[in-house]
């Protein structure tokens, strides 16, 4: 009897990895998570996780026909090479070739935020939208830019470095070497660092947000972050003319404290056109592996089966 086809998906992050086995119908039957260990060979770890997912698929009587692996960094998607990923210490790494050789599986690789954008387009806040920007705001900031239904990758795979748009002339130094970058002000790391510099108190970004309305210093660094973020979205709107802007990442936990000022300042910054609606991403931290599964399904010629999947029924608790 012929086994039913399935794909594997892995989202590689700087602190953790998420993986899944997904059927041809776009249904996840197994989801797993592993830490990304600094002392570990990350490529070997990915190979090990693919092999463990392969065993799970075989136990479920599924035939794995492709695997999707997505990572941060500058990605040459045509060759499957990670040109540069600072938090993984990779440069010119032929990831797709290495994983294919080690596992014997057809592997497709991609950029984590761009594939998160694909997931939101198939299942989430940008479902059915052909022109949108997904901006993820966590420790840093990056964007997936989609025009006419297709992701914008750029000549070297570096399109979407939204966090490194210089927004404040003569502003604070960014870790990238530029001055005044957006993510210096409007990111988890930036918010925590600027609050520390202002008060001498070390707090994570979520605790700074929790003090809004009761702590003038928290209010000030947050207001500056919202101003810079909104101005960045004004620039993106005028360049790309998106139907929708989707915000994702840890910052979205701030709720109306984020959305209200951003929406108001985005509208105020656009004198001759209406502002696009600003929505919150719906798939959260699961978007990476969902997008990786979508890439693998396409690579295997199984189309966009995920379009029929209802993610809320499975995220965090997938069932066969």
- Percentage beta strand: 15-25%
| E-strand count | 13
Order of strands, widest sheet: 3-2-1-4-8
CATH class division of the largest domain: Alpha Beta
The end-to-end distance, rounded to whole angstroms, is 19 Å
Name the CATH superfamily classification of the largest domain. ATPase, nucleotide binding domain
Radius of gyration: 20 Å
CATH topology of the largest domain: Nucleotidyltransferase, domain 5
The structural class is alpha/beta
Overall spatial form: globular
Quaternary state reads single chain
Quote the average pLDDT: 91
Sheet with the most strands?
5 strands, mixed
Estimated helix fraction: 25-40%
H-E string: EEEHEEEEHEHEEEHHHHEHEH
**Helix segment tally:** 9
Number of domain modules: 2
Which descriptors apply to this entry?
2 domains, Nucleotidyltransferase, domain 5, 5-stranded mixed β-sheet, 35% helix, 9 helices, disordered C terminus, single chain, 320 residues, alpha/beta, 13 strands
Description of the molecule:
The chain is an alpha/beta fold and 320 residues long. It folds into 2 domains: 4-117 and 284-313, Nucleotidyltransferase, domain 5; 125-280, Nucleotidyltransferase, domain 5 (2-Layer Sandwich), CATH 3.30.420.40. It has helices spanning 42-59, 95-103, 112-123, 182-185, 188-199, 205-210, 216-240, 256-268, 287-299, and strands at 4-12, 16-23, 28-35, 62-71, 74-76, 81-85, 90-93, 107-111, 132-137, 141-147, 150-151, 244-248, 278-280. The chain has a 5-stranded mixed beta sheet with strand order 3-2-1-4-8, sandwiched between helices. Strands 11-10-9-12-13 form a 5-stranded mixed beta sheet, with helices on both faces. A hairpin with a 4-residue loop joins strand 6 and strand 7 (90-93). 45% of the residues are buried.
């Amino acid at each position: 009897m012929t086994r039913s086809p399935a794909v594997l998906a892995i989202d590689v992050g700087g602190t953790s990895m998420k993986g899944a086995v997904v059927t041809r119908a776009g249904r996840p039957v197994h989801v797993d998570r592993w830490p990304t260990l600094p002392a570990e060979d990350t490529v070997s770890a990915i190979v090990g996780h693919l092999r463990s997912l392969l065993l799970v698929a075989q136990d479920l009587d599924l035939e794995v026909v492709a695997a999707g692996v997505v990572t941060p960094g500058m990605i040459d998607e045509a060759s499957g090479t990670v040109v540069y990923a600072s938090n993984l210490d990779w440069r010119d790494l032929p990831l797709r070739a290495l994983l294919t050789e080690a596992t014997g599986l057809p592997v497709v690789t991609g950029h984590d935020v761009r594939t998160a954008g694909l997931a939101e387009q198939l299942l989430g806040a940008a479902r059915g939208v052909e022109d949108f920007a997904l901006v993820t705001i966590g420790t840093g900031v990056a964007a997936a830019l989609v025009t006419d239904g297709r992701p914008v990758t750029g000549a070297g795979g570096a399109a979407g470095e939204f966090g490194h748009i210089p927004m404040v002339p003569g502003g604070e130094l960014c870790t990238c070497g530029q001055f005044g970058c957006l993510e210096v002000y409007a990111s988890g790391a930036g918010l925590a660092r600027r609050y520390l510099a202002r008060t001498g108190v070390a707090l994570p970004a979520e605790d700074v947000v929790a003090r809004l309305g009761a702590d003038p210093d928290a209010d000030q660094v947050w207001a500056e972050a919202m101003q810079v973020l909104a101005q960045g979205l004004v620039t993106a709107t005028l360049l790309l003319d998106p139907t929708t802007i989707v915000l994702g990442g840890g910052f979205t936990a701030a709720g109306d404290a984020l959305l209200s000022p951003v929406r108001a300042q985005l509208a105020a910054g656009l004198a001759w056109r209406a502002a696009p609606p600003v929505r919150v991403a719906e798939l959260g931290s699961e978007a990476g592996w969902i997008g990786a599964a979508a890439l693998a399904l396409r690579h295997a010629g199984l189309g966009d089966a995920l379009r029929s999947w209802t993610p809320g029924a499975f995220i965090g608790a997938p069932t066969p």
